[in-house]
DNA sequence: AAATGTGAAATTATTCACAGCT
DNA sequence: AGCTGTGAATAATTTCACATTT
């Protein structure tokens, strides 16, 4: 995509790598903390440490935005905050709707970090008529019937789906039809969207499963190394032993699913 | 890390790529759905569609686990469910503690997908003495003072942090000292952990910021293409125009932070 | 005929290491 | 003297395309 046609002046070429985009919010958060402590400048080394990445990566990331540092000195904190904010589109206001006001939806509505940085919860939507009118986080819940009108009246382009998995695709379709082009999906299901619509997903269960994979791996290595097991590791090793039912065992009746 | 020493038989070599591990839960979910519908076999094409990836990637991913398919036929659903579950370590029970029982912590405790697939909420922990003893999702909340004992008594190796950002590092340190080696962090802060401890983070604000970046990009392209704007896109374009304050503007007083 | 499994190519991301600026 | 910015080197990931197996 966007194959470099070898004729544009190298300056500020389009296309920041996706991996870099994903880290910009991290840098921004670290910078904001420095700004609040009135720190005027910061080196790539310091900022990288605060953001939990290595400094070469950080410098490379910033190089895609432009040359915002000063050699021998570092980066001006305020200036960088502004440049990254602008790059991320946070200098404008983003009205957001949350659909599905259960436990999670309510938690999201109450989440402070949501409101900061340009995002504004414009409306809460739920399918339960009993919820309608009830305020959550100070915002009255509206009924799904009015979804399209709410989207359009508020010029919403970002939707958050916090419904049960079964309702997610349907809600997604309606959001997209009404003009939403970015979706943050908390429902544990794959959403099908047309070209041009971005979906990002947050899935607790997936994150835990990834951790379990590494945890299992660690348990295996411990067993091999066979040192004294600190803390709760002994119990973990015991679990491991109990679960190991021979290599490549044949298919059992049914799995935990 | 774990540099291949070039002497092990290629069969089932160690080290599944991280990107593959991150997709296994996705495949597992799709397979579980098929299993519930009693679908006996599935092709890489079909399964890939259900999981939202392309089929070559899926086949490559599975090739790291072993040869579990049948050429000309596809994959046996039950068998694959089992193999992936085993690979992810889901054939064993993982007791988990959630620390910080605010809105989000409560939502997590109530989250059904949590309990499925081998994860069990062993305890809820909060720093507020007023919460102690109160049941959330049927589990009584315990006080932070007892954190170490709770971890050890339950053999917990996975901890979920849902505290405010300010408390997260301290909670993390105590969890790790007590024997936890995997942490799922919902607090918007970078956690420092010793070697051997895995941390995964979930950050709503970061996800929204990434969406905003792409959203902004789209608005720019629309303005360039200048077609009829469907739905709420017109309003979005207007926002864009309002926010564009010339290229490379100088530093403003303060940013939204 | 159909679909897997996989080398090889292409792409993307990270890290190194140092020239160049302040 | 210190620290950025970036080519070049390396590593990881994705995609292609097809030989191989059922």
UniProtKB/TrEMBL annotation, chains A, B:
It is found in: Cytoplasm. It comes from the Bacteria. Residues 26-65 bind DNA. Keywords: Cytoplasm, DNA-binding, NAD, Repressor, Transcription, Transcription regulation. Coiled coil: none annotated. NAD(+) binds at residues 100-105. Residues 89-190 form the CoA-binding domain. Its main location: cytoplasm. Residues 236-257 are annotated as: Disordered. Belongs to the transcriptional regulatory Rex family. Homodimer. Modulates transcription in response to changes in cellular NADH/NAD(+) redox state. HAMAP family: Rex. This is Redox-sensing transcriptional repressor Rex. It comes from Streptomyces anandii.
């Amino acid at each position: 995509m966007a194959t470099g046609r070898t004729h544009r002046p190298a300056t500020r070429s389009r296309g920041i790598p996706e991996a870099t985009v994903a880290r910009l919010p991290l840098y921004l958060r670290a910078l904001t903390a420095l700004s609040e402590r009135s720190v005027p400048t910061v080196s790539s080394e310091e900022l990288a440490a605060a953001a939990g990445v290595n400094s070469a990566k950080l410098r490379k990331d910033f190089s895609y935005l432009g040359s915002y540092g000063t050699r021998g000195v570092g980066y001006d904190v305020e200036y960088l905050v502004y440049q990254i904010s602008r790059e991320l589109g946070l200098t404008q206001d983003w009205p957001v709707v949350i659909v599905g006001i259960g436990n999670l939806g309510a938690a999201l509505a109450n989440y402070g970090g949501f409101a900061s940085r340009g995002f504004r919860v414009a409306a809460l939507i739920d399918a339960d008529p009993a919820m309608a009118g009830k305020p959550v986080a100070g915002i009255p819940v509206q009924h799904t019937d009015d979804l399209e009108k709410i989207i359009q009246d508020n010029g919403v382009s970002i939707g958050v789906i916090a419904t049960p998995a079964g309702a997610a695709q349907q809600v997604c379709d309606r959001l997209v039809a009404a003009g939403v082009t970015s979706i943050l999906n908390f429902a544990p299901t794959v959403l099908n969207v047309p070209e041009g619509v971005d979906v990002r997903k947050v899935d607790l269960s997936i994150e835990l499963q990834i951790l379990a994979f590494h945890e299992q791996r660690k348990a295996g290595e411990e067993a091999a190394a066979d040192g004294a097991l600190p803390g709760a590791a002994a119990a973990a090793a015991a679990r491991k032993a109990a679960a190991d039912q021979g290599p490549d065992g044949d298919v059992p009746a049914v799995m935990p699913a």
